[in-house]
Amino acid sequence: MIRLCLILALCICGLAAWAQTTPEPQLKVELEESEAILGQTLTLRITVLVPTWMPDPPVWPDFETPNVQIALPERSSSPVSQTIDGETWSGISRRYLITPMAPGTVTLPATSLTLTYAQPPATEPLTTTLTLDPITLTGVVPKGAEGLDPFIAAEKLTLTQSVDGDTTGLKGGDSFTRTITATVNGVSPVFLPPLVPDDTPDGLRAYPESPVLDEKSDRGELSGTRTEKITYVVEGSVQGTLPALTLDWFNMSGNAVEAATLDGVDVQATAPAAPAAAAKDIDWKPLLIRAVPILIALVVLVLAAQRLMPRLTLALRRKQQRHRASAAFAWTALKSALGAQDLSATRAALSEWQRRAGQLPASEMAEIEAAFAAIGRVRFGPNPSSNPSSNPGANEDAYWQSLSRLIDCAKHAGSTRAHTDSALPALNPLARPHP
């Protein structure tokens, strides 16, 4: 009995020691600051580390939340490595830019991150889910800027305008164009309101164009322009001014409210539009005689089109659906993913192509999976020089080329097998011998 108890105790201790020596992925969530002026960005960084490598990139959360703008800057994801307990861990870090859009506290709800990695001591991929706790941040309006509507906080804001064409001494039918541009630093131009005033002097017809936004980001520092262009056409006598423009904004550098202004534009037109020429008498009878057959033909064509169009549309839709469900379409998607070197998309496209064209033999799939694993080690693993089982001279492009060749060979071999299987039997089969 004592011996049995000792054996059980040793087993429990061994299991506990094994559990302690099996490292688990680590998740780090860092929010630089939890409070920002409306329109200003906060940086949220999420880092995930594993003791081996990741054959596929993590499935990141999107954090969609009302009253908050969330964006990914250029090169938002980057590989990282860290020494933990004397071992080199590899991982990926992703950076989010979070911009409060309304004053008050906002909570990004709890979410999850899906991760696939090789768990030691085995090297088979293991998929797990890591939980992210809720994240709370606050959007504030600085003191003295409570009355701004709309609220704009920036490092710098300027207004400029240009006029293309004369604005005085105009005649009926003449035109000119007014262009207004707002330039901001320290905030996205999406926060700028409409610039061109609605008031137009009598005798002018306004033809506005759609606003043009040009946003730029330099290491997370936002800037950009909003440009509005409007063309005015003289329709009568004009004696007035296009309205001036004033835009109040909060200067974060000076911690004060300032105003950007533009002067109005004087407009003068002395001559009204020329009267339209009097219409001549027209004999409508010959025109109607010629128009009746044309109208009848048009009616027949319209009726025929109404009957045939649903059938043609249905046939075209079915043809498109058959094409999208074909193995050829899946193969095109697979080659596109290979060309883009998108690991997740390539795996999904390969599975879909096999589902439509037929499963590959186990020997071919083993070589293809080995190529996938090699790409995962190069892309998400530690420095190849620290891994004795890897080739220091290898690079990711070479592994992608190898994977593409393996898949091409597998497709060719599958086509050959299919051709062999579909061969017709002999035309003169041997007759059974008479008993």
Largest sheet: 5 strands, antiparallel
Mean pLDDT: 83
What's the SSE pattern?
HEEEEEEEEEEEEEEEEEEEEHHHHH
Class per helix and strand makeup: alpha+beta
Alpha-carbon Rg, integer:
35 Å
Could you please describe the fold and organization of this structure?
By secondary structure, the protein is of the alpha+beta class. The protein is built from six helices and 20 strands. The protein has helices at residues 2-21, 284-324, 327-340, 343-357, 362-380, 396-421, and strands spanning 26-31, 35-37, 42-50, 68-71, 77-84, 87-100, 104-108, 111-118, 125-132, 135-140, 153-154, 156-164, 175-185, 204-208, 212-218, 221-234, 238-242, 245-251, 256-262, 265-269. Strands 1, 3, 4, 5 and 6 form a five-stranded antiparallel β-sheet that branches. Strands 12, 13, 14, 15 and 16 form a five-stranded antiparallel β-sheet that branches. Strand 8 (111-118) and strand 9 form a beta hairpin. Helix 5 runs antiparallel to helix 6 (396-421). It is flat, with a radius of gyration of 35 Å. Mean pLDDT is 83; it is low at 14-19, 384-390 and 429-435.
